Amino acid sequence: MPPHLDYEWQLRTRGHHTIAGVDEVGRGCWAGPVVAAAVVLSDAVLHMPAFLQGLNDSKQLSASQRNQLIQTIHQGAVGIGIGWVAAHDVDCFGILTATKLAMQQALMSLPLIPDALLIDAVKLPDWPINQQSLIKGDATSLSIAAASVIAKVARDRMMTQLGIHDRRYGFSQHKGYGTAQHQQALRRYGITAQHRQTFRPISTFLATGQWHDDADEAERSMVK
Fold first, then answer.
1. Rounded Cα gap, residues 88 and 110, in angstroms
2. Could you tell me which of 13, 17, 16, 36 has the C-alpha nearest to residue 25?
3. DSSP string covering 77-113
4. Distance between CA 119 and CA 192 in Å, rounded?
5. Is 159 strand, coil or helix?
6. Spatial distance between the Cα atoms of 23 and 37, rounded to a whole number of angstroms
7. How do the domains of the chain map onto residue ranges?
8. Sheet holding 77-85, edge to edge
9. CA separation (Å) from 53 to 2, 31, 45, 73, 75?
C-alpha cells in the first residue's frame, strides 16, 4: 500500500491546517552529513493526492524516479525546508541528536510555521506543537514520503559534489554508505574531514590501526 493522507486528515479534523511531514537520510553513512527535510503539502494535494502518484519512501525509488518526483513535490507543496548536520557535528553530538538538529533546521527554514508535525520515527520534545512519530512513516504518510524524497535528493547532490571535489573515495557512487568500494578507498587513502570518526569501522581503525574485514557487518554497526 502506498503512502496515504489518513494521518494528515486526522490532524485536519482536530483543527490543524499547516501540517509538516519530516524525515531524514544518511543516519547510517560512514561519511557526509545527515540531512532532513520538512514538507507542507498544499490543500489542493490534500484533496487530490493522485497529484503525487508514484510517491513513496525514497529508499523504494530509483534515482531517476526521485528526480522526476521532486519537481512535482515542489509544485504540490506550500513549504519546503532542508536542514543538515556535518560529519564533525555528528561525531560531537551523536547521530540521534544530530538527526533532531537537522530536522529542527529544516522546520526553521520553512517559509511558514507548521501547527502540527508528522515525523518518521523521531520525536522533537522541545517543539511545543502537536506531533506524531510514525514508525516507517515514509511508507505510510504522503507528507513524510515527500520529505524523504526531498532530503534524499538534497543529500545525494551534496555527496556528488564531494565526489567531484575528491574523486578517490567514490562518494558520487555510494553517497558515503559503507560499501566495499568505500572501505577499499579508506584502506588506501585513510580518512577525511567528511568521515564520521565515531562510526565503526572507522572508530575501530583509529583505535587499533586495523580495518574490519566485513563491510556489510560494519555498515550495520555504529557508535552513537
1. 25
2. 36
3. EEEEEEEEE-HHHHHHH-HHHHHHHHHHHHHHTSSS-
4. 32
5. helix
6. 6
7. 6-162, 167-220
8. 77-85, 34-41, 19-25, 116-120, 130-134
9. 9, 33, 11, 10, 13
* Helices 63-76 and 142-165: angle between axes, nearest 10 degrees: 120
Going 195 to 197 to 203 to 206, the CA torsion angle's sign is positive
Name the pLDDT band for 213 (thresholds 50, 70, 90). low
- CA–CA separation, 210 and 170 (whole Å): 21
- pLDDT, position 57: 82
Cβ neighbours of residue 71 closer than 8 Å, sequence gap 6 or more? none
Q: Does CATH place domain 6-162 in 3.30.420.10?
A: yes
Amino acid letter at 24? E
CA–CA distance, 198 with 91 (Å, rounded to integer): 6
What per-residue confidence (pLDDT) applies to 3?
A: 94
Residue 112 burial by CB count (10 A; 0-12/13-18/19+): exposed, middle or buried?
A: exposed
